[in-house]
Structure formats: C-alpha cells, structure tokens
Design goal:
106 residues, mainly beta, five-stranded antiparallel β-sheet, 2 helices, globular
Length: 106
C-alpha cells in the first residue's frame, strides 16, 4: 500500500484493528477493554483500544496508537503467565459494567 506522500507502508497488510484483540484480552480483564480509552504516552492522543492498530503475528499482540503508531500495549502468554506491557499508555480508562456501578452506590 502507498500513502498520500508516495511512501510504501509495508506493514499495512498485516494490520488489524484493535477489536481483534478482544478475545485474548478477555482472559485478563473481566470487562470488554476494547471500549476502554487509552492515552498514548508518546503523542497524548486518547482513543478507544478498539481503534488502535493490532499486529497479532508477532510473538506478542502489539497494539499501536492510531495517530502516531507508537506501541501502546503488548500482550503475551509465556510459561503459564499473562504478560501485559502498558508502558506506551499514560492512562487506561475502563468503564465498569452498570451492575458494578449500582452495587457500589455510583
């Protein structure tokens, strides 16, 4: 694929949207985190994880910022452990299910 500047994007054919990570992330989170909002530590853009670019063909799932393409999240399973690297996210805001909000008096 070629972008408007004429540069060939060799990774575009591998890229999925962040929604494709839902099944794997469900193993770690009790809520759907694809609707969570993440603030990129590199450029400051805030967007839903489902809008991020997912690269799933590496040794780990890699979610990249849709604005600057820096890595926001890495997820892998190694030796019976889930490894979650969020160093590329300044903040991950997850909405609680309505039932949880009601039971907490919110």
């Amino acid at each position: 694929m070629t972008d408007p500047t004429g540069t060939v994007d060799i990774t575009a054919s591998r890229r999925l949207d962040g929604n494709a990570a839902a099944g794997m992330l469900a193993e770690l989170f009790a809520v759907d985190v694809t609707t969570a909002r993440s603030r990129c530590a590199s450029c400051g853009t805030t967007s839903m994880l489902g809008a991020h670019h997912l690269y799933a063909d590496a040794p780990a799932l890699v979610l990249r910022c849709p604005s600057c393409t820096d890595v926001v999240l890495r997820y892998a399973i190694r030796e019976g452990r889930i490894l979650l690297d969020l160093r590329g996210a300044q903040l991950l805001a997850v909405l609680l299910p309505a039932a949880s909000n009601e039971s907490n008096g919110a």
